[in-house]
Amino acid sequence: MSELRFDDRVAIVTGAGGGLGREHALTLAARGAKVVVNDLGGSVDGSGAGAASPADKVVEEIKALGGEAVANYDSVTDGEKIVQTAIDAWGRVDIVVNNAGILRDKSFAKMENADWDLVYEVHLKGAQRVTKAAWPYMLEQKYGRVIMTASAAGIYGNFGQANYSAAKLGLHGFAQTLAEEGRAKGIHVNTIAPIAKSRLTVGILPEQFIDALKPEFVSPLVAWLCHENCDQTKGLFEVGAGYMAQVRWERNKGNSFPIDKELTPDMVANRWNKITSFEGENEHPSDTNAAVGAILNNIMNPSLGGNEFIDLDLAMKAEASGENSYDERDLAIYALGVGAAAADPLDEKELAQVYENSSDGFKALPTYAAMPGMNYMLQQMKEGKDLLEGLNYGFDRVLHGEQYTEIKQTLKPCAKLTHTYKVKAVYDKDPHAVVVTSTTTTDENGVEVAYNENATFVRGAGGFGGERGPSGSINVAPEREPDAVITETVPVEQGLLYRLSGDWNPLHADPKFAKAFGYDKPILHGMCTYGYCGRHIVKAFCDNDPRFVKSIKVRFAESVFPGETLETRMWKEDGKIIFETHIKDRNLVAIKNAAVELFDELPVEVEAPAEATAEAGDQLIAEDLFTALAQHVAANPELVGKVDTTFQFNVSNPDSQWYVDLKSGEGKVEAGVLDKPDVTLGVSEENLIGMLTGQADAQQLYFGGKLEVSGNVAASNNLGPALEGMDPGLIEAAKAARLKS
To answer: In CATH, what number is assigned to the domain containing residue 129?
Structure first.
């Protein structure tokens, strides 16, 4: 590998009479750079200016080694004089290393204004003055390298250095903007936060560390950042004792509050954990556009709100999926768990629900359609995993409020299933909340088997200002005698049997656990009572054939204890079966506002959906857009001077890459990757089509996270002028030509 050289480059290094500055100057000069060695000759605190010897000694060292250098003794606040020295000697300036600095350390309470002002003058104002004087030359030659010297004190703070910290972090902010302004002109600006043996560190750090902090371990990084081969800009680097690392800003995902509701300090306090937590995936904004994107997104897509238990923005977008399976054994255990065949195990139709070789044919109870999806969810909880993002509450807060199950396909004796989970609604019942989740279940062929909705009552999770949800009661029992009544006593061991179907909550098995939650003994699972009701409907209205049940919806009103007697009262009303289940022992209603829909005829088994054979050839694709854009550019060569921007498009779904060069020649639009484009846009083909045909707004796509922009973000606005006046017919013509070929 050839040595990195700086031949014909002119560098200015401020504060180069000793320490880091001296080493920077020697390193650059040793590799061919012509160096202006600037040093005021003052002491560490900035006093005693005017001694020329430090700069002269370094110049002599450089010349003795065969290099070229001149000395300059001006203050960095007279930056134009320092730069003029380079112009007078060599007619140009390519590199500026802002290194000069002083210390005036005192606690903030004791710090005089003069201490503050002088440190600011040398560090921040001095760097501004020198860089300002060099900037026009760099712009004209379309090349430049600038280094700012910050400090760990500026990044992290340090007692007794309020003035120094403010100036040093100010240098980094200064560099960030210069990097953006210089990017398109070949000027790179970076910041280092070094720790090395110098006049500023002697007497501060323990002596045993000083010798290891050699300036020689810092200057190689400075030299690389100043080299023409290095394309790094806008970076911040910690460096010292052989260690180098880039530092970047990080912020967490934060919390967005609704902008159409009052925001109170209490709401901030309630969300403080989320506002301050850095757990999980965090963000690293690279520019101002990215930094304010979250704020603008909350304006364009206002937050739904929530609290520490329910994050509505995450919850309403959340989707999860999982797989599991069942077989005849699972169906039989479940049926036994909800009391099947208990009355008469010799009854063939009852036996068909628990015995796979029944002469009446093995038949799954319809309420089992809720179990596989629920079991997967419970298994995730058992393993300590959150199934749906944004729901941050545990078993100790929840009660099963309502359940709806719709059977889309007669349950087979065994199946491998996929479940898709979403949050359908969240209602604020201040101080509590109700969360409605949906589960769509499909089999291995993609056929939908069942759809379930689960309304969960979450204690203490309300009060976030959301909708209260629908009011009024549905499926109210008629004021007449029921058309059918079934009474059944639940055996005392039934909860222990039912839990074998997957509901492992110790509330239903462990007496101590139940007492901790305010119950005298374990309660029966609500879904076990649900299964009992389903069986009663099947027996009373379906001649014990569970395949006739289309849907079942219930509201859980009271807990049942094993050993109690259930009485299900049923009415055939308005094309459905309305029912209530009472606890006879305590004269309470366990399930109310409940109804079952029945099929008029047994449903026909649905076959697996046929594979889609139609091709998307008659749809617009990215190729059509860029073919049309190429014709537009060819017909309008003046766009090159008008737009003066190169664009790289990285398209996904399906993947392709295209570039648009409106900066050189007569312009070009081609498939491929452009070297160092001004702006790079990442977007799906669907959103690209919407954006370039005017059906989607680019800003909304950007702030909605559907359009990624990097490089010179401001230059992305030049895409509008590039497309201005483009004939929409070109796109259709390009598509037609592609289809014809």
So the answer is: 3.40.50.720
Contact 685, 621 (CB under 8 A): yes
CA separation for the pair 306, 572 (Å, rounded): 41
Beta-carbon contacts of 241 under 8 Å, excluding residues fewer than 6 positions away, are 195, 212, 213, 214, 217
* 643 within some domain: yes
Name the strand (E) or helix (H) holding 246: strand 243-247
SS3 content of the chain, % helix, strand, coil (to 5): 35, 25, 40
Tell whether 517 is covered by a domain.
yes
What is the domain range of residue 63?
10-247
Q: Which of 116, 131, 457 is nearest to 310 (CA)?
A: 457
* Cβ atoms of residues 603 and 571 within 8 Å: no
Q: Is residue 610 in a domain?
A: no
- For the ranges 36-45, 195-204, 361-370, the one whose mean pLDDT is highest: 361-370
Please state the separation of Cα 352 from the chain's center in Å: 50
Are 208 and 138 found together in one domain? yes
**CA 459/CA 434 separation, integer angstroms:** 9
Residue 207 confidence class, pLDDT cut points 50, 70, 90? low
* Model confidence, pTM: 0.62
User: Alpha helices, DSSP H only, in 477-620?
Assistant: 494-498, 511-516, 526-541
- Mean pLDDT value of segment 66-76: 97
Selection from 677, 642, 672 nearest residue 661 by Cα: 677
Which H or E run includes 86?
helix 79-90
- Same-domain pairing of 526 and 413: yes
687 or 228, which is more confident: 228
* Mean model confidence pLDDT for the chain: 90
How confident is the model over 344-354, as a mean pLDDT? 84
- For the annotated catalytic residues, the residue numbers are 164
409 is written with which tokens?
A: 């396909």
Dihedral of CA atoms 552, 555, 559, 560 in degrees, nearest 10, equals -30
- Supply the DSSP symbol for 716: G
Do the beta carbons of residue 338 and residue 365 sit within 8 Å? yes
- Decide: 658 and 652 in contact? Cβ < 8 Å: no
Cite the DSSP H helix spans in 161-262.
162-182, 207-210, 219-225
Whether residues 592 and 641 share a domain: the answer is no
Q: Cα 516 to chain center, whole Å?
A: 39
Domain assignment present for 606:
no
